[in-house]
Amino acid sequence: MITPLTDDSSAAPPLALARDALTRFRSCFWSRCDVAPLATRSDVALVVRRLRQNGDQAAWAAAAGIQQCL
Fold first, then answer.
1. Predicted confidence (pLDDT) per residue in 27-38, tens digit
2. What is the domain range of residue 64?
């Protein structure tokens, strides 16, 4: 089952952090289409995975912060 995340105050932290990471760590998401939506828990989990696979120490720290919110 796909769990959508909304931008309300209870769910915004992981979604907002993931969206911020997409901007800050563009090189980690070289294969991502710019118009692809980021709206579900699976999408956020993919952001965490890509940060860990392709990122530096700062990207790993961002991934840890996002993971804690999930």
1. 999 888 888 889
2. 12-22+40-70
